[in-house]
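Quick illustration, no need to memorize.
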Amino acid sequence: MIRRVATRFGWLVWALVAHLGAAEPSVGLRFEVDSDNPLAVTLIAEAPANSPWPADSIALLSRTSQPWFGLWLGEAKPDSPPLAGTYSLAGGKLCFCPGLPLLPGQTYTARLERPGLNLRAEYRTAPQALAAAPQLSAIYPTSDRLPANHLKFYLVFSEPMESGVFLRHCRLVDARGREVEAPFRETELLSPDGKRLTLWFHPGRQKTGVNLNVEFGPVLHEGGDYRLVIDGRWKSARGVPLGTEVTKTFRAVPALHEQLTTRGWKLAVPVAGAREPLRVTFPQPLDWATLNRMLRVTGESGGTVVGEITVARGELEWRFVPAQPWRAGRHELRVATALEDHAGNSLARPFEVNLEQRARSRVLPASEAEIGLPFFPSRQEPKP
């Protein structure tokens, strides 16, 4: 008969038979399972204390191509080879350890054949758990209205993605279902951790008057509706596909050509002694990645205040929560002039400059790498 006994080592499968008609079982077969890896097992044949295994058992097993003790994948047929591995003998235990871990979702048969003995025991391994699919966590910008000269998207994944294949899995489709020809810059810009792809529209097509723009036309046309489609077959670095196609739908609105400015920015100043957020709102959405990198807060001493940044409300708001309560006195919001809008216009210069714009644009020198906007947290007076 066969009975399964749960122990702290895992599931042990016993096969017990009467030896030469004896009333009590004399030899037991069992599997000892590694508690950390259910595919790593040891097959054990235990002999009774009064009838130990012969000292030459290992030598006998090693000299035969059809061992009388071993482990087989599937049925233990007489003409099928057993698993390769090592044998050992310790007291009343004859052991076999497979050379490799067992395969998931398979049935294995242990066999022990000696004069008067014909034992079998089965061990079934659990099916391999389905690997969790990677997720496309976010696509920035989040707005569904983007300027006709929009430059780039940011695809944020839950884990590192396969590199060198993004052009196979990203496409742009217009309102008629037609795929836009060669819309993307071919250079792959994955973050060092492999979790974020910066997907550029080809700047040469988005910049008016340059060769690609003249020859192929712009990627987007004002008033047009588009879908950015990410193929569900794109795999993570560990080889698991997304599984589901992801689509971002948006409309192309009038292009942005003006140099970015801080005019119209509104600062909601927090009170001193608390950890309320500093909120900065913008008259137009700004570039998500540069918002996360190009703004910082300094205190009275000029040192950077440590805290947490959040970009919210469709990239129309920047929030900063300090690690410690605000101190009263002068602070500054320091803004790097490399901060951009969705069309690549920065505080330093517009993305493209024609002669008319050149006259009214103020291209900032490299020395003006940051702009400072002062604010003053003050202590809230207690109400009478």
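Residues 1-25 have pLDDT under 50 and may be disordered.
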